[in-house]
Design goal:
The complex is a heterodimer. Helix content of chain A is about 0%, strand content about 50%. By secondary structure, chain A is an all-beta fold. In chain A, a hairpin with a 6-residue loop joins strand 5 and strand 6. Chain B has no helices and eleven strands. Chain B is mainly β. Classes of the chains: A mainly beta, B mainly beta. The interface between A and B is medium-sized, with 25 and 28 residues.
Chain lengths: ~120, ~110
């Protein structure tokens, strides 16, 4: 079974509107963390936001927020007020195990977001 | 802001040649990683490195691959005899022990002809 599922291969949004990118995960480990990364066409991986499994509140970073629904095992990324520069591939990723432990990230297949002017 | 730096940004090599990809992790980070992304596919874990030894490796990381931290600052990935299917973007990443955030470098694109 896939550990990270991103069901939207591509999404379109109008500039200045909000968009939600879906991510569901599968783990039996009580301690885990969820990450979102942005990959522009230039190829680098840019960290956007992180949510730990024990965090009580949804993570927010500027225009990015993570809609964490633990019971549904979903960690959707919400981008508010989309900008043309937000056009990129977005990856959801998960680490399993304690935050301080050594771990690896498992990535989803990504969602290609296109922001239209 | 400190960042992970990788060299070269792009390398073209002939099949069977050895390749070394270099990374300088963020200076106070303790965990180091290599990930790979074949064009159009998802990012895959290759290897993690902590306390001067490999702590975990994936099935992709076979005997053709090796990593080392030769001088306390650089972290290298060596592919001994490249194959066509090694063509990919290789990302180095690092993190501090207490924070979950993994910082990636800008990647090294390897093209094997």
């Amino acid at each position: 079974a896939q550990k990270i599922t991103q069901t939207q291969p591509g999404m379109f949004v109008q500039e200045k509107e909000a968009v939600t990118l879906d991510c569901t995960y599968d783990t039996s480990d009580p301690s885990y963390g969820l990450f979102w990364y942005k990959q522009p066409s230039s190829g680098e991986m840019i960290f956007l936001i992180y949510q730990g499994s024990y965090d009580q509140q949804n993570a927010t970073e500027g225009r990015y927020s993570l809609n964490f629904q633990k019971a549904r095992k979903s960690a959707n990324l919400v981008i508010s007020a989309s900008q043309l520069g937000d056009s990129a591939m977005y990856f959801c990723a998960m680490r399993e195990g304690r935050e301080g432990s050594n771990y690896k990230l498992t990535f989803g297949k990504g969602t290609l977001l296109t922001v239209n002017p | 802001e400190p960042e992970v730096t990788q060299t070269p940004s792009h390398q073209v090599t002939q099949m069977g040649q050895e390749v070394i990809l270099r990374c300088v992790p963020i200076s106070n980070h303790l965990y180091f990683y290599w990930y790979r992304q074949i064009l159009g596919q998802k990012v895959e874990f290759l290897v993690s490195f902590y306390n001067n030894e490999i702590s975990e490796k994936s099935e992709i990381f076979d005997d053709q691959f090796s990593v080392e931290r030769p001088d306390g600052s650089n972290f290298t990935l060596k592919i001994r005899s490249t194959k066509l299917e090694d063509s990919a973007m290789y990302f180095c990443a690092s993190r501090r022990q207490d924070l979950g955030e993994l910082f990636f470098g800008e990647g090294s694109r390897l093209t094997v002809l």
